[in-house]
Amino acid sequence: MYELFLTALVEDSDINTALAVLSGFCSMQPWESISRVLYFQGPPRPSGITNQRSLEKPIRKDVAMLWKELHQNLSRQSFVLQARYEILKDRDLGPSAEPVDLDTIPGILRWTDFPDPPRNQPIIAQRKKVELWDQRKLLSVLQENNHQLKTETVEEMYRFFRDDVEFCLTRHYFVGPLENYVPLSSGQAAPTAPMPTLPAWDSLTRVDAQNRWILQVKAHVVQDNKPDEIKKAQDQLLKFRADLEGVFDFKVFDRRVHDTRVAMQPQGVQALPQKVLLGKS
């Protein structure tokens, strides 16, 4: 699948106006959802998804094709993948929430490629994408294929649809101490398992210090080898951008902000430690 999208930032003070505008533009009320997002880093040397012991059997043909596509991409380059689980505020957050074995519930496995270099329309980001929905034992599959849990967040989203185009307003929250999210920190060690329970909603810390929302307007092309379909999706996004001019300020962002690649380790070179303690040998 090929994903094309526009991006704009929305101030927290403008969120109600943004929701009202998009509700009218798409002729629908927003779909609100909360997701628990776990980030898994692939191995220094890519090896794909070769261990399929924990994949649910039998595998439907369409799902098998997606696993194959994911394997091919992860064989050429390691990436940070997302395992995503929809949660409810009153059920899954806070002291009354019951611990959950994430391997027993269905989730979404998401991979996104490094976006293409900007060409004729730099305002539109374009990248390959694979999503596997309703998959159990995702944590086992990833760990058995040498993917290491790095961190997790909670994502708040409002979603709209119009003409097969998706409008997503999202905001992310830290679920643990901030030092857990700082690279090369001398604090907590890298997690080996997801948090047993999540803190209360009111205690979560927003990832963006300015409390902004991210608006992405997305179009998808199932077969990325059809330039006519990609051009059609581009034209649709540009039309919607023009329709919403003066309401949302869509900007060109450096494609490196969407870079989920893992630096490759050359053969014969020892990996450096992930945490550095200054002044200690």
List keywords for this structure.
Hypothetical Protein Pfu-838710-001, Mediator_Med18, alpha+beta, activator, 281 residues, Mediator of RNA polymerase II transcription subunit 18, transcription, nucleus
Task: Walk me through this protein's architecture.
With 281 residues, the protein is of the alpha+beta class. It has one domain (2-258): Hypothetical Protein Pfu-838710-001, CATH 2.40.320. It is 20% helix and 29% strand. It has helices spanning 15-26, 61-76, 89-92, 138-144, 227-243; strands at residues 2-10, 31-41, 80-87, 107-112, 125-135, 148-162, 165-174, 205-206, 213-221. A hairpin with a 2-residue loop joins strand 6 (148-162) and strand 7. It is found in: Nucleus. Its main location: nucleus. Keywords: Activator, Nucleus, Transcription, Transcription regulation.
End-to-end separation: 47 Å
Number of helices: 5
* Strand arrangement in the largest pleated sheet: 1-5-4-3-2-6-7-9
Tell me which CATH architecture applies here: Beta Barrel
pLDDT average, as an integer? Answer: 91
Instruction: Give the low-confidence spans.
Output: 272-281
Main location: nucleus
Subcellular location: Nucleus
Keywords: Activator, Nucleus, Transcription, Transcription regulation
InterPro entries: Mediator_Med18
Task: List strands and helices in order, with pairings.
Blueprint: E1 2-10, H1 15-26, E2 31-41, H2 61-76, E3 80-87, H3 89-92, E4 107-112, E5 125-135, H4 138-144, E6 148-162, E7 165-174, E8 205-206, E9 213-221, H5 227-243
Antiparallel strand pairs: 1-5, 1-9, 2-3, 2-6, 3-4, 4-5, 6-7, 7-8, 7-9
Subcellular location: Nucleus
GO cellular component, one term: mediator complex
Protein name: Mediator of RNA polymerase II transcription subunit 18
